[in-house]
Amino acid sequence: MRHGPSAARDEVQSKLPALTLLFWVMKVAATTLGETAGDLLSMTLHVGYLLSTVVLMAGFVVVLTAQLRARRYVPFLYWGVILATSTAGTTMSDFMNRTLGLGYATGSVILLSTLVGVLVVWQLIERSLSVTDVRSFRAEVLYWSAILVSNTLGTSLGDYLADDSGLGFAGGAALIGGIIALIVAVYLLAKRMNVASPALYVGLFWAAFVLTRPFGATMGDVLTKDPDKGGLGFGTVGSSIVLATALVGLIAYTMLRDRTATRPVVATDSASA
Predict the structure, then answer these.
(1) How far is CA 219 from CA 18, 178, 244, in A?
(2) Has residue 95 got a pLDDT over 60?
(3) What 8-state DSSP symbol labels residue 136?
C-alpha cells in the first residue's frame, strides 16, 4: 500500500469524461450553442462585445468554481463549464478582433501563442499533459485554462478563414472539415499500429478541440442565417433553444447509460433455481 502525496492523488477521482465519439458530438453541440448564445447576447440583444464578455466571464468563473470544488465527475457541471468557455470565448474573440481592432489573423496568432504557453507551463509543472486523467487541483486549473483559450482561438480562426482568408463561408467550412477528417485518420492509424506516443495523442486532441470550435460556429451560422443566405432561419433565439435541448438530452442519455452500466445485476429466483 502506498502512502504520502502519490497515494492521496490516486484517491481523487478524475472529473473528466471518456473521450468517445459521443464526447465530440456533445462538444460540437456545446460550442455551436456557445456561438449562438454569445451572438444572442452581444448582437441580438445589443449588449455589446465588452459587456457581454464581462457577463459571460463572470458566469464562467461561477461554474468553474463549482467544477473545481466538485469531488467527482458531474456531467451537467462539466458541460456547463464547456458551454461557458464557448460563450465567453465567442465574445472575447469578437472583443479582441473587432472592438480592439486586432484583426482575426493577429488575434489567432496571439491566442495560439497563449495556448502553447499554457500547455508548456502545464507540462513543466505536472510532467504530464493527460486530458483523460486530471486529478490535482492545479492540473485541473491548467486544463480549463487551455479549454478557454482553445475555444477563443477556435472562434478567431473560424472568423479568419470565413472572412479574411478568401476561402469564404463554404471554403472555410470545407477546409476545417477536411483537417478534422485528417486528424481522425491519423488517430485511427496510430491506434491500429499501436503507436505509444502520449505527445501525439495530446497534440491530436488539442488540434481537434480547437477546430471543432469553428466547425460548431459554421453549424451555428447554418442554423441562424435566413434561407436566402443558405441557412435554416431559426435565428439566434430559436437555434439556442434547439441546441440547448439537444445538449441536455445527450447529457441525460450519458448519465442514464453510465448508471445502467454500473448497476449491479441481481439474480432472479427462477435464474438461481
Answers:
(1) 24, 15, 14
(2) yes
(3) S
What does the pLDDT look like over 114-164, one tens digit per residue? 999 999 999 999 888 888 778 788 999 999 999 999 988 888 888 887 777
**Of 248, 256, 228, 254, whose CA–CA distance to 33 is shortest?**
248
CA 199 to chain centre: 20
Closest by Cα among 83, 66, 81, 72 to 255: 72
Residues 6+ apart with CB under 8 A from 7: 1
43-75 core/surface letters (b: 16 or more CB in 10 A; e: else): eeeebbbeebbebbbebbeebbeebeeeeeeeb
Q: How far apart are CA 161 and CA 262, in angstroms?
A: 44
Main-chain phi, psi angles of 22, to 5 degrees: -65, -35
In the chain, the largest separation of any two C-alpha atoms, in whole Å, equals 77
Task: Show the cell assigned to 164.
Answer: 479574411
Helix, strand, coil percent content, the chain, rounded in steps of 5: 80, 0, 20
What pLDDT is recorded for position 134? 81
Global confidence as pTM: 0.81
Q: What is the DSSP string of 164-220?
A: ISS-HHHHHHHHHHHHHHHHHHHHHHHHHTT---HHHHHHHHHHHHHHHHHHHHHHH
Please, are residues 201 and 132 in contact by the beta-carbon 8 Å criterion? no
Measured distance CA(99)–CA(59) in Å, rounded: 21
Rounded Cα distance between 261 and 140, Å, is 27
Contact present, 61 and 53 (Cβ < 8 Å): no
- In the chain, the amino acid numbered 142 is L
Neighbour count for residue 9 (Cβ, 10 Å): 12
